[in-house]
Amino acid sequence: MERTYVKDLSGQIGNPVLLRGWVHKIRDFGKLKFIMLRDKTGLVQLVISDQTHEGLRIETPLEVRGILQKNDKAVKGLEVQVEALSILAEPEYDILPIEINREDLNSALETNLNYRSLSLRNVKKRAIFKVQEEITECFRTFLKGEMFSEIHTPKLVSSGTEGGSEVFTVKYFDRRAFLAQSPQFYKQMMVGAGFERVFEVGHAYRAELHNTWRHLNEYVSLDVEMGFIKDEFDLMNLENRFMKYLFDHLKETCAEELEMYHITLEDIGEIPKMTLEEVHEILLDRYDKKSPVGNIDAEGEILISQYVKEKYNSDFVFLTKYPVKKRPVYAMPDDENPELTKSFDLIYKGLEITTGGQRIHSYSHLKNNMIKFGLNPDDFDFYVDTFKYGMPPHGGFAIGLERLTMKILELDNIREATLFPRDMKRLTP
Amino acid sequence: MERTYVKDLSGQIGNPVLLRGWVHKIRDFGKLKFIMLRDKTGLVQLVISDQTHEGLRIETPLEVRGILQKNDKAVKGLEVQVEALSILAEPEYDILPIEINREDLNSALETNLNYRSLSLRNVKKRAIFKVQEEITECFRTFLKGEMFSEIHTPKLVSSGTEGGSEVFTVKYFDRRAFLAQSPQFYKQMMVGAGFERVFEVGHAYRAELHNTWRHLNEYVSLDVEMGFIKDEFDLMNLENRFMKYLFDHLKETCAEELEMYHITLEDIGEIPKMTLEEVHEILLDRYDKKSPVGNIDAEGEILISQYVKEKYNSDFVFLTKYPVKKRPVYAMPDDENPELTKSFDLIYKGLEITTGGQRIHSYSHLKNNMIKFGLNPDDFDFYVDTFKYGMPPHGGFAIGLERLTMKILELDNIREATLFPRDMKRLTP
Fold first, then answer.
1. B-chain residues within 8 Å CB-CB of A194?
2. Are B38 and B25 in contact (CB under 8 A)?
3. Nearest to B193 among A120, A133, A228 (CB)
4. What is residue B162's predicted lDDT score, i.e. its pLDDT?
5. For a tag site, which of A152, A154, B250, B317 has the least CB within 10 Å?
C-alpha cells in the first residue's frame, strides 16, 4: 500500500489509507484517543478507539493504517479511524524545550535557533522556507526563460572581491585563501567566457563585525550578470520583471503561507526610480533627515520607502546614480556626470535587497581605474586579464535571498529566514 | 529591433536580423570578408561586401544588423548579409594564448585553466557545462516531483562531519570554524525538522592532500536525505530512478553535446547490485586483484565496472554492505550481520560517484556508537540532540556533480568539468 500525504487525503473518504508523520497533539479520553498527526504537508486527526498505545508521546514518528472518514468537527472535515499503528522511533527527551504545536511559538528567537530541528517542525516556521524555496525556484525559472545559464563559481578565492576588507581567511594547505564575498569577478568572467547571461544561487561570506537584525555572516546570494546590455536600465528592467513574475507566482503557490503571515502582495507595475540626489533632497525636505555622503543609512531606507509607498503605492524603489567614490572599482561611470556611476540599489519595504549596475568593460579603463582607486591590478590579474580578450558591455545585480524572504513575510529578524544562521556569536547548530 | 540568437535564425530567411556575439573566425578577400560570428547558442557566417572594417580582430564583441540569406555552403545553410556593424569593445591582447576557434583545443589543460574565460569560449568546452547544467536541473526537477524540498545549509561549521580530518580551517572572528565536508548532519536534521525529504545543491570542501584526475578540494555535491524509508534499498531505488530520468532527459536536451563527445548513453534499467564481499571474490577470481580491507581501490573500481559491463551491459553498479569499520559513525548496521552496514556506493564507468546508506535514527544507539568509535558525543551535541525528539528511519546519498559530468562525457580530468577548479596548487583564476 502506498503512503498518502495529508494534503492528498480529501476525496478519499471511505478508503483505507497509509499515513506517516509525527504526533502533533494528543487528547486522551481513556477509551478514545484523538491524535493530531503532522506530516510534511499538513495535519489530520486520528481516532484510536481501543485502549492500546498508552503513553504515546508528542513528536513520536508513526506509521498508521486506517479508514478515512468525514468529521465536520475535525480539521478540514476529515479524520482517520486507526486500524494499525506502528511507532517508528521512541523519543528520548525529558521535556520538549519548545511547544511546537502552538500556532505561534512563544519561545525566544535564541531558543528557536538553538533547537532548530524542533522549531522548524512548527507549521508557521516551516512556511517561511516554503516561500523561500519558491523564490529560488522562480529565480531560476524566470532567468532560464530569459536565456541565462546557471553557474557554480568558487567560494575559495585568492583575493577579496572589493579590496580585501571584511573577508574570512582560510588556511589553504601552505598558504592563505579567502571566502568569496560575492561571485562578482567570476560572474563577469563567465559573461566574457561566452555564456553571455549567467546566474548563480550560492553562498556569500561577509566577516562584518555587526550583529543586527538584517546582517548574516553567511548568506545565499541570488546573482545575475548579463552581457550585451545597453545600460543599467536593462538591468533594472530585468529585475523589475523578475519581481513581478515572482510575486504573481507566490500569490498562486504560497497563498496559504502568505495568509498565515497576513501578507497581501502588491501587484507590481513599473518600479519607481529616483536618483540618490533626489532621495537626499526628499529626505531632508520632508523628514529633516540628513544622509551620509553618497549613500543613505538604515533610517533613510525606511523613510524613503514610506514616501514611495504614499506617493506611488509601491513597496519597491530603485535608487540610481550612486557616486564613483562609494561604489566598487568596476562600476561604470555615468555618461553625463563622470563622478556618478551607472549603478543602483533596490529598496523593498525599507531595506536594501539588491545592489547592481553596469560594469566597466574596457581593459585599459578598468586597469587605470584600479590604479586610481589605489589597488594593484596585478593582485587581480586573473580577473583584469579577461578584459583584454573582448568583453561586451555588461552588468548585473545580486539579491539577498534571506533579506527578500524576511521582507516578503515581514519577519523581524533575518535569522528567521535562515535554516541555520551564522553570525558573530553563532556557529551551531 | 529585438536581438535574435543564432539558434533561432532558421526560418527567418529574407528577414532583417539583429545579432550579437564575438568574431570567431575571419576570412578576408579584400572586397569581401566572411566572418564567423559566435554567440551563446551557435555560429553563423556574416558577409561584408564593402571595404569597411579593416583590421577587425578575432574575439571582438559585435552587434550586427543584416539580412538573413540562404547559402548552402555556409554552416547550417545560412549567412547574414551585413548592413551595419558596431564594435562593442576593442580587444587589447597581443596574441591569443589559446586558439579558441579550433574544434578541439590543442592547448594544455593547465593553459586552458589559466585562461578559463578564453578556453570556455570554445564550443566543445562550453558543451560540458550545458550537460552539467542539465544534470542539476534534472536533479531538482526529479526530486521535487518526489516531494523533496530544496534546502541551503551552512558551509561554516563548528566541527568536521566525519571526525575532523581533511578539513579546512577558517578564522571565524575570535575562534576557529571549518568548511563543511558535506551537509550530512544538516540534511539529517532537516529530515527530523519535519521536512521529511530534502536535497541540496551546494559546495563541499575536502582538504585532501592528493592532486589526482578525480579529486577536487572544492566540489558541488548533489545531496539527498529521505525520511520514513524501509531500508537502504529505498535509496538505491530512488537513485536508480533518478539516473534513468536524467539519462532519458539528456538524450533529448543534450543530443548535440553528447554527439560532440561521441557518447551514446545507455538505456538504464535496474542497476545491478553486489555486496562488497561478492565484489572482492570476483576481483580475486577473475582478475587476480586483491582489495584493501572493507573497500575497493581505484583499480578495483575500474575492473568491477568492466565485469558488470560485460555481464550485465550496465555502466552502473551498486556495491552494498560495507563493513561498520569503514563507514561513518552514523551508518546503520545490517540486520543480519552487525559488522556490516546498510550502506552502498554507486560506481559508474569505473569511478565511485555516490556514497549513501541508511542512518542510525535512535538517539541512544547513535550516542553509544559515537563512544564506541572513540568520539565524544558532546562535540556533536547540536546534531545528536536532534535524535531525542523523534527521528524517523531515514537515509540518503550524495552525488559528485563534477564526477558525474566527467564520466558521462568520458573526460580525462575532473578539472575539465569544473568552471574554476580548486586543487592543492590552484586558487586562481
1. 22, 38, 40, 120-121, 126
2. no
3. A120
4. 60
5. B250
Residue of B nearest to A401 (CA): B152
Q: Does the annotation list A208 as a binding residue?
A: yes
- Say which CATH superfamily domain A6-87 falls into: Nucleic acid-binding proteins (2.40.50.140)
d(CA A248, CA A251): 5
Locus of grid cell 580585501: A164
Q: Over B113-182, what HEC string results?
A: HHCHHHHCCCHHHHHHHHHHHHHHHHHHHHHHHCCCEECCCCCEECCCCCCCCCCCEEEECCEEEEECCC
* Secondary structure string (H, E, C) spanning chain A: CCECCHHHCCCCCCCEEEEEEEEEEEEEECCEEEEEEEECCEEEEEEECCCCCCCCCCCCEEEEEEEEEECCCCHHHEEEEEEEEEECCCCCCCCCCCCCCCCCCCCCHHHHHHCHHHHCCCHHHHHHHHHHHHHHHHHHHHHHHCCCEECCCCCEECCCCCCCCCCCEEEECCEEEEECCCCHHHHHHHHHHHHCEEEEEEEEECCCCCCCCCCCCEEEEEEEEEECCCCHHHHHHHHHHHHHHHHHHHHHHCHHHHHHCCCCCCCCCCCCEEEHHHHHHHHHHHHCCCCCCCCCCHHHHHHHHHHHHHHHCCCEEEEECCEHHHCCCCECECCCCCCEECEEEEEECCEEEEEEEEECCCHHHHHHHHHHCCCCHHHHHHHHHHHHHCCCCEEEEEEEHHHHHHHHCCCCCHHHHCCCCCCCCCCCC
ipTM of the complex: 0.97
Of chain B, the percentage scoring pLDDT greater than 70 comes to 99
Nearest to A194 among B120, B152, B205 (CB): B120
Residues of chain B contacting residue A391, judged by C-beta atoms under 8 Å apart: 61, 89
CA–CA gap between residue B9 and residue B15 (Å, rounded): 10
Q: Do B390 and A59 touch (CB under 8 A)?
A: yes
* CATH fold of A123-417: BirA Bifunctional Protein; domain 2 (3.30.930)
Q: Cα–Cα distances in Å, from B413 out to A376, B109, B254?
A: 34, 9, 21
B352 labelled binding-site residue: yes
Across the interface, whether the CB atoms of A186 and B150 are under 8 A apart is answered no
Distance from CA of A46 to the nearest CA of B (A): 18
Cβ–Cβ below 8 Å for A429 and B189: yes
Tell me the per-residue pLDDT of B10-43, one tens digit each, with 9 for 90 and over. Answer: 989 999 999 999 999 999 988 899 999 999 999 9
Interchain pair B228, A89: CB under 8 A: no
Instruction: Give the chain A residue nearest B197 (alpha carbons).
Output: A40
Question: Any binding-site annotation on B355?
Answer: yes
Find out whether B336 is annotated in a ligand binding site: no
pLDDT tens sequence across B136-178: 999 999 999 999 999 999 999 998 666 557 899 999 999 999 9
Domain boundaries, chain A: 6-87, 123-417
